[in-house]
């Protein structure tokens, strides 16, 4: 794929980031490794920001494995069923868009990289997002097409890196930080997820994934630790039921930790020179 | 990227699967979703098969987030440090190859799809794997380039799908099954990982990720449930220390469950018509 001089618009990623009309701050949530709670942080950060009175959008950039619809209580493929084109739908006070709104349950998206890039580009630039204080982009695992395209297309104000405290998650998180540096996107900090588990039977804490790794990583990389979110026994169940924890149980330890993350992110944004 | 007629070898993926000389059975481990324990299952399945006397290789096809080196106790980038070219290294009785053997800790691989495809192709066809009863391929999350290239390049005997019991993991696992069907690769079954957690303080079981989802999924898709592996409190720590559970604690519940998976996989292979 070579750039085509004289054909602007054919290779929009070569034009550099383009603003999204009406959107003031774009934030990317990344981890490189999957399954560490990236989408959980994205959903709850978006809702926590909306709870402060901001207008917030959430873009699911995971084309081959979009989980945002289930976590927000949308049925897979509901827009296609209703013969609707893809658009952002409101729930829990935020606007959400995902390719999962068009795909019936179980439909695989077996696309090579250029198609993935085109998919995320359309979610960003072809949907009428309207007036937003924040657009949260939930990036898929890996540092390949979806992430590269988003970083090159969107004027991302800052990236938030999610990791569990495990070595294998941390080593992937460092690579995510490296990717954002390569692509000139500021990293706002690290969220350590699944820091510890509190047994609902005896109340004892077990650091299943070896707590403290997130703090050490933040230290090593010289970026802030934005928060430590416990693995709350009922959180996966609530997520499966489409009930994000900051909306369903705002007083729970996990929700409180996520609200702290939201505050630290707005603080980081306020400190960015304009 | 268009196919180049008259340039055979330039687009080897168009030639269909090519046998890997000396390798009798290729197995793919996939999940679509990351962080569900795909690499854990791949590593431990490989070692469990080797413990039965078989010769086994393990190919880490996760180019942007290779975790196999850490899980097997290899230092990131050790081959590059020793000025060695990439080759398979033996440990715990199996031969292992990963791009992580060449990459210093934290080095991001910011490659678009065609480069990813080329990377996995080289791991498969350009390394001298030697005589192997089984070559286990650990696929990255997603159903894009790495997975597509492997399915098109390698004569995969069967795929093993790993999922946690959570809805979001299951919905991604169904897509992995769909991808293999599209690409004409038989699916041997589902491994449910992190089925339940046993509190090391009180011994009580908590189904953090909602047990039973793997069984329901296997039932829905008409494929076998190959096993249910508990989230053992010390498993992440052992993995971080490069000590796979079937080698370090063969009598533990997680190791026993993984050994059952290995037996069921060999049974499934034995039933494939040749």
Number of helices of chain A: 10
Structural class of chain A: alpha/beta
The unreliable regions of chain A are: 1-13
- Give the end-to-end Cα distance of chain A, rounded to a whole number of Å: 34 Å
What form of chain A results from the Cα inertia axes?
globular
SS strand fraction of chain A? 15-25%
Question: Number of DSSP strands of chain A?
Answer: 9
Order of helices and strands of chain A: EHEHHEEHEHEHEEHEHHH
State the helicity of chain A in percent bands.
25-40%
Mean model confidence by pLDDT of chain A: 92
Largest interface: A-B, 64 and 64 residues
Main beta sheet of chain A? 9 strands, mixed
Radius of gyration of chain A: 18 Å
Give me the oligomer status. homodimer
Quick recap:
2 copies of one chain form a homodimer. Chain A is of the alpha/beta class and 274 residues long.
Please describe the structure with a list of short key phrases separated by commas or semicolons:
nine-stranded mixed sheet; homodimer; disordered N terminus; 35% helix; alpha/beta; 274 residues
């Amino acid at each position: 794929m070579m750039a085509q001089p004289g054909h602007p618009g054919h290779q929009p990623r070569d034009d550099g980031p383009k603003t999204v009309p009406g959107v003031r701050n774009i934030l990317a949530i990344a981890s490189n490794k999957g399954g560490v709670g990236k989408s959980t942080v994205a959903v709850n950060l978006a809702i926590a920001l909306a709870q402060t009175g901001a207008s917030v959008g959430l873009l699911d950039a995971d084309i081959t494995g979009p989980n945002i619809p289930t976590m927000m209580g949308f049925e897979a493929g509901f827009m296609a069923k209703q013969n609707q084109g893809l658009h952002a739908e409101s729930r829990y006070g935020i606007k959400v868009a995902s390719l999962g709104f068009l795909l019936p349950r179980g439909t695989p998206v077996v696309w090579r990289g250029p198609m993935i890039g085109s998919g995320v580009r359309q979610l960003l630039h072809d949907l009428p997002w309207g007036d937003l204080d924040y657009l949260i982009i939930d990036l898929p695992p890996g540092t390949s097409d979806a992430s590269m395209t988003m970083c090159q297309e969107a004027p991302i104000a800052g990236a938030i890196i999610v990791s569990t405290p495990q070595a294998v998650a941390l080593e992937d998180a460092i690579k995510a930080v490296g990717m954002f540096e390569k692509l000139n996107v500021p990293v706002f900090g690290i969220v350590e997820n699944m820091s510890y588990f509190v047994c609902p039977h005896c109340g004892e804490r077990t650091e299943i994934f070896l707590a403290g790794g997130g703090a050490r990583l933040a230290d090593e990389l010289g970026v802030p630790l934005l928060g430590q979110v416990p693995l709350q026994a009922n959180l996966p169940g609530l997520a499966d039921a489409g009930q994000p924890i900051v909306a369903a149980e705002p007083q729970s330890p996990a929700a409180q930790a996520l609200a702290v993350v939201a505050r630290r992110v707005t603080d980081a944004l306020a400190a960015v020179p304009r």
